[in-house]
Amino acid sequence: MSYSRPFRLRLLDAVTNCLRSITPANGYKSDLSASVFRGRLVFGDNDPLPMVSILETPIPLDSLPTPAGGKVQRGDFDLLIQGFAVDDKEHPTDNGYILLADVKKALVLEREKTTQISMSGGPNAFGMGKAVSDIDIGFGTVRPADETSATTYFWLRVTIKITEDISKPFD
């Protein structure tokens, strides 16, 4: 018996694909077509730059309570996107700001889909239909190389407002 992927993993796949669309051919300054990762905290010298990693926040916020006997859960799916860029020799963090701007731009395009009506009659951010109702994009913080990273990096908090049927996690 084969199972499809759980809802949140399908959503993470969609976020990954969204960020992989960041290429110069699509109007961005950065090329992330082959350098978007999920769940990776540690990177080395052989990893490509620029690159991003999509992480879930360490301590998730509680979702809105599901009514007794209810199957639908609504809440915030909090993600941290960490990006790494090549240092600029004169101004080391400049490329981090460029990468952060590209990531925000791609996410804003998805957020706009939460207010547009798709062919199916509802919002369609990340191709998830009404399951994604909004996307909050944080301010972001760019840091120079330090004990965390050997190169410029950024953190960006992203909150995706979701509705999932917890009785059918693989549908």
Q: Which tags fit this structure?
A:
171 residues, six-stranded mixed sheet, globular
What does it look like?
- With 171 residues, the chain is of the alpha+beta class.
- The protein has one domain: Alpha-Beta Plaits (2-Layer Sandwich), CATH 3.30.70.1700.
- The chain is built from 2 helices and 6 strands.
- Strands 1, 2, 3, 4, 5 and 6 form a 6-stranded mixed beta sheet that branches.
- It is globular, with a radius of gyration of 17 Å.
- The model has no long low-confidence stretch (mean pLDDT 90).
Shape summary: globular
- Domain count, please report it: 1
Radius of gyration: 17 Å
CATH C-level class: Alpha Beta
Task: Please count the beta strands (DSSP E, at least 2 residues each).
Answer: 6
Structural class: alpha+beta
What is the straight-line distance between the termini? Answer: 14 Å
Q: How many helices? A: 2
Please summarize the sheet with the most strands.
6 strands, mixed
Short description:
By secondary structure, the protein is of the alpha+beta class. The protein contains 2 helices and 6 strands.
Topology:
Layout: H1 7-20, E1 36-38, E2 51-56, E3 72-84, H2 94-112, E4 132-137, E5 141-143, E6 153-165
Parallel strand pairs: 1-2
Antiparallel strand pairs: 2-3, 3-6, 4-6, 5-6
